[in-house]
Amino acid sequence: MVVALDNRGIGGSSRPNYPYTMDMFLDETKALLDSLSIQQKIHLCGISMGGMIAQNFALKYPDMVKTLTLLATTPYLREQFAQPIREEYRAIMQDLDLEEGFKRKLDLMFSKSFIRRVNEEEVLRNALFDTLMIKSASNATWQDLENRGAALMKHDTRGNLQKITQPTLIIHGTEDKFIPVENAYLLDEKIPNSKLITLEGFGHGSILIEDAERVNNLIWNFIQENLD
Predict the structure, then answer these.
(1) Other residues' Cβ atoms within 10 Å of the Cβ of residue 101
(2) Residue 169: which residues within 8 A CB-CB, separation 6 or more?
(3) Is there a contact between 155 and 22 (Cβ–Cβ < 8 Å)?
(4) Dihedral, 98, 100, 103, 108 alpha carbons, nearest 10
(5) Out of 113-122, 140-149, 194-203, which region has the weakest mean confidence (pLDDT)?
(6) Candidate ranges 104-113, 139-148, 162-171; pick with highest mean pLDDT
(7) Alpha-helix residue ranges (DSSP H) falling in the chain
(8) What does pTM read for this prediction?
């Protein structure tokens, strides 16, 4: 069984208007597992913010986690790096029209080769425009991002990563503008039983979109290797 969770402030979940904390994300993840009566250890996977939550969940509830998969994420979020991205996203959501905002998102999230493909393939472009600009715009506000960001700016697992003993797969694009690949190297260095796979030329959004079949196979093979 695969369970995909929309945390508060994302997707179909409620979006209360106050700053969130990491403990809120951990508590609601645990509550979902409890409500589904999932008692066996889980294969926990998180991308970006989800990867930050996954690290903290594995530290708080180690007996509930069988394996950990961390995609395009970091052990800590540096204010000096996060601020420029924050300002860029604020402009995309509040100042720019949809077409210009779409171009800026593509540049932030994807490789140059994939952007060329998007511009050449109308079906792909329309699908991605709908996902990034229409659906995301209808399901998120700038205030939602600010509320989630309050938890992320306090995220810092660097001093505890050695306590994550579960088999851990780390996947990161070498051209990630949101979270530089150096963060993946740090995760791999500090987590004892980890395996790092870097995707040459991939950006932050490429992990799940640009070559989804390849990434899915990497995750599935890792899980298969650690079923027992």
Answers:
(1) 20
(2) 67, 68, 69, 70, 194, 195, 197, 218, 219, 222
(3) yes
(4) -90
(5) 140-149
(6) 162-171
(7) 22-35, 49-60, 79-94, 98-109, 112-120, 122-129, 136-139, 142-152, 182-190, 206-209, 212-225
(8) 0.90
14: amino acid identity, one letter: S
Structure tokens at 106: 């593509």
CA distance 153 to 144: 14
Helix (H, G, I), strand (E, B) or coil at 45: strand
Q: Which residues contact 74 (CB under 8 A, 6 or more apart)?
A: 51, 52, 179, 183, 186, 187
CA distance 188 to 162: 10
Contact 33, 26 (CB under 8 A): no
1-228: CATH topology: Rossmann fold (3.40.50)
CA distance 164 to 81: 26
The whole-angstrom separation of Cα 120 and Cα 54 is: 36
